[in-house]
From TrEMBL:
InterPro entries: MBL (IPR050698), RibonucZ/Hydroxyglut_hydro (IPR036866), RMMBL (IPR011108), Xnuc_lig_assoc (IPR026360)
Keywords: Exonuclease, Hydrolase, Ligase, Nuclease
GO-annotated molecular function: exonuclease activity; ligase activity
Organism, scientific name: Mariniradius sediminis
Full protein name: Ligase-associated DNA damage response exonuclease
Length: 335
């Protein structure tokens, strides 16, 4: 019996009769993280990391049947030993390790290699089979250290504030927004967030995570309080009437897609910052090598190119796996 197979409902572990990040309603769903392409509504029972508990309830409903466990703790389902391990993607993100009859498979979900100071850092898990995303699986994607990116963000904000301008920075509401908040130089000015980010922050704080608890940027916020402010908002707010209250302002976008074709992907933004919650080309290779896997399944992104590279240059057997993991919020996604 296979330990993992692709079914119409998603990645399936037959001996455990459980699915990992299924895209259709099933009885038992193991969730790698709370982004909406991985954590969908309608499952009879969910298993996830304990740091995902409150944000999953926020997104899927307070009455979901949810079991949470810490990293490294094993549980057994139908003879399959299951444990969750740090993925470093967002708070509570996990790799799912499945062990049955001496064989080990790991489903990584989404991950990044650089520790972000918010999520538990990625740890490679030795296995026979490894399922890996390759969102940025091309050699052109190479991230700078996040400290340099945050230095540029803070410098941009300071320059705007000195010129009497507010700064509106677009970033995905779960993971990247909190990562940015925790690295802002708050001595520059006040910090506000969009309502969706504020709700997410409250859920994460309730789960015990250390997140800068910034107030909502509401309609009745006095303009005097907004002077030289930093406002963090999801990409969906770009160009919306909600933005008018921040005039005069400059806009920026944080995304791995800013690495190339920046002018087009920035759309109406004034500046783009290359900051991703996914591994770059070198990070993907390092992570895969770290697992010592005999076979690698690739999902989402440049699967064909990356599979060819692994086969021809690294001697790793790689197979493309067609899934519905596509990120969130349009072309910027959760990148």
């Amino acid at each position: 019996m296979k330990l993992l197979e692709l079914s119409p409902s998603g990645l399936y572990c037959p001996p455990a009769d459980a699915f990992i990040d299924p895209w259709r309603p099933v009885k038992k769903a193991i969730i790698t993280h709370a982004h909406s392409d991985h954590a969908r509504w309608g499952m009879k029972h969910y298993l996830a990391h304990q740091d995902s508990a409150e944000v999953l309830k926020l997104r899927l409903g307070q009455d979901i049947s949810l079991q949470t466990i810490p990293y490294e703790k094993s549980i057994e389902i139908n003879g399959v030993r299951i444990s969750l391990h740090p993925a470093g993607h967002i708070p509570g993100s996990a790799q799912v390790r499945l062990e049955h009859r001496g064989k080990v498979a790991v489903v990584s979900g989404d991950y990044k290699i650089e520790a972000d100071g918010l999520s538990k850092a990625f740890e490679p898990v030795t296995c026979h089979e490894f399922v890996s995303e390759c969102t940025f699986g091309l050699p052109i994607y190479k991230w700078e250290k996040q400290s340099l990116i945050f230095e540029r963000i803070n410098t941009w904000w300071k320059q705007n504030a000195e010129n009497g301008l507010n700064s509106v920075l677009f970033a995905y509401s779960l993971g990247k927004a909190q990562r940015i908040l925790n690295h802002l130089e708050t001595s520059i000015g006040p910090v506000f967030v969009h309502g969706s980010i504020w709700q997410t922050n409250q859920a994460l704080i309730a789960n015990g995570l250390q997140v800068l608890d910034s107030p909502k940027a509401e309609a009745d916020t006095l303009k005097a309080k907004m002077k030289g402010a930093m406002i963090i908002a999801p990409p969906s707010a770009m160009g919306s009437p909600w933005m008018k209250k921040f005039n005069p302002y400059r806009t920026g976008i944080c995304s791995g897609w800013m690495n190339v074709r920046g002018a087009r992907r920035r759309r109406a933004a004034d500046i783009g910052f290359v900051l991703s919650d996914h591994a770059d080309w070198e990070g993907l290779i390092a992570a895969i090598k770290g697992t010592q896997a005999e076979k690698v399944y690739l999902t989402h992104g440049s699967t064909a190119v990356f599979a060819r590279y692994l086969e021809e240059s690294e001697g790793i057997h790689a197979v493309e796996l067609r899934t519905l993991f596509q990120g969130e919020n349009g072309d910027l996604g959760d990148s």
